[in-house]
Amino acid sequence: MNVGQKKINVIGLGYIGLPTALMFAKSGVEVIGTDLNTKLVESLSKGKLTFEEEGLEELFNAAVERGIKFTTEYQSVNDYIIAVPTPYYDDTKKIDPRYLISAIEEVLKVAKKGATLIVESTIPPGTMDEQIRPLVEEKGFVIGEDIHLAHAPERITPGNMIYELENNSRTIGADEEGVAERIKEIYASFCKSEIVTTDIRSAEMSKVVENTYRDVNIAFANELAKICREGNMDVYEIIRIANKHPRVDILQPGPGVGGHCIPIDPWFLVGDYPELSNLILSARKINDSMPEFVFDRLKDIMKQNNIKDVSRVGVYGLTYKENVDDTRESPGLQLKELLEENLVQGVKYYDPFVNKSIVENQLFDFDEFVNSTDVIIVMTAHNHIKNNFDKLKNKHILDTKNVFDNSVHKL
Q1: Domain housing 64
Q2: N or C: which end of the chain has fewer CB within 10 A?
Q3: pTM (2 decimals)?
Q4: What are 116-151's pLDDT values in tens digits?
């Protein structure tokens, strides 16, 4: 296949859609990226990225050289990749499909006959059957003739996006084998790993299962941390020893789970299968409870050291994982909300990767942050904090990420 003859409209230019569009463009595919956020499109059109990621600037420049375009308009093409947000309803935990439905409605207004709609957004099993197929048919299209449907769930993480786009296995779910193989050929323009083809429902379920598996395993480590704290045991030492067993691989506990995958996707299964998802629900509750556990540890440390001025407390880390600028669902922000709910005011916040103000009392100079605090809660294991331990002498450090040795407070 001459990928240069292909033309793709990527819908949604966020953390998934943008790097995907850039990778296609760099690989010789003609790409037009569409997003309804006018400021975002203007920024990209002027050559300015909207978030930081290792290697993204180089990829962006390569894509621009190959002619990638950005617009707020949907395009009349044969292939669409849809990468819009798919949140859930707080009360039912079921998917909120409004962004996906809106995007597909707009695509159907301009799509060429025989066009393929490839949904990359994470969706629970049955979404294409229950939400998308009826919508397409209501608009008068014959699925399999006028419009082809597919699901190709993304499988990348901030901080390592470029490498994982090229080297992670992909899954293509489609109704027809021929359509799946054609989409596989498109992704093979940059994906160096195995590309698996299957039916749509299996593709939907596989992505949700992957993140649910991770959530359950994180919850086990977090529950161990709670048990060991209650029993006056060192959870890190216990995990270190247990992991010497050839069939045991326990993760490290932490202050909670962030990002737009692990804390979201398991709820889809809880929402759709409430009577069957008991373990999944328990894992979600455990992980969601960790900021409260951190708050309780903070109160213990302050009491033990006779520290009463909460304005001398600092939270280090507002992003959800180390060495990225992504703050979605971050434990640091969850802790902030918990502190405010308990009327704890005056706490300082600092994150070297967050260069604009997103919370009250956020400081942008690390030395100022350190000098204005007596207790520092490490919520994110940035390399920055690892390299600045010498500046934290005489501070009471609550190390929720096990960054430092046992001379500091742990979970």
Answers
A1: 3-198
A2: N
A3: 0.92
A4: 999 999 999 999 999 999 999 999 999 999 999 999
